[in-house]
Specification:
It is a single chain. The chain has 178 residues and is an alpha/beta fold. The longest helix has 25 residues. It starts with 7 loop residues before the first strand and ends in a 6-residue tail after the last helix. Bound molecules: zinc ion (ZN). The site of zinc ion has 3 residues, from loops.
Length: 178
């Protein structure tokens, strides 16, 4: 056989062949019904080779979640120095009060804004991304000081201050780039 990506086969009580590329390592797992032969399965995997490689590359380029420890601490110190002037700049641009800032490891969000206490918390992970993405999250959280919800008014505030915010959001959330 030529060019069949390596894969792990599991037999299951399912109707069709199923192939997944698993995060974080890019392991290829094929689930197959009992009656499908190994030849058919490996042809199926070979057929999907370029799709598999593309996924594996994308996983390889995705930074692993930040662990607590020296790296996280270094990023926190870096953000403590570099972020406040940026937030100050944007707060002035947008006409909102300067919030207090916190930097934390977060697994599901890039930032949060407590509109009551006027506190913005930013994901440490942002220090490992392009600065334009950090800036997008800052503008997003500051926009909550004008409008709490993700509604039309909120997005109008975003567009007024950062016309390309949608593009930045797409990049930040890892959608494929053209
Ligand atoms: Zn929000």
């Amino acid at each position: 056989m030529n060019d069949v990506p390596e894969y792990t086969l599991t037999r299951k009580r399912i109707k069709n062949l199923r192939l997944t590329v698993r995060a974080p390592g890019g392991e290829v797992v094929v689930s197959a019904p009992a009656h499908v032969s190994e030849n058919v399965i490996s042809a199926f995997v070979a057929d999907k080779a370029s799709w598999i490689r593309k996924h594996q590359e994308r996983l390889a380029n995705t930074p692993q979640p930040l662990q607590a420890g020296p790296e996280a601490e270094a990023l926190r110190q870096h953000m403590k120095r570099s972020v406040p002037p940026l937030v100050e700049y944007w707060a002035q641009q947008m006409g909102v009060p300067m919030p207090s800032l916190a930097f934390r490891r977060m697994t599901t969000r890039w930032g949060t804004c407590n509109t009551q206490t006027k506190r913005v918390t930013l994901n440490l992970e942002l220090a490992r991304r392009d600065p334009s993405l950090l800036e997008y999250v800052i503008v997003h959280e500051l926009a909550h000081l004008i409008e709490r919800g993700h509604n039309e008014r909120f997005y109008a505030v975003m567009s007024a201050h950062m016309p390309d915010w949608k593009l930045r959001r797409r990049v930040l959330n890892g959608a494929p780039q053209r």
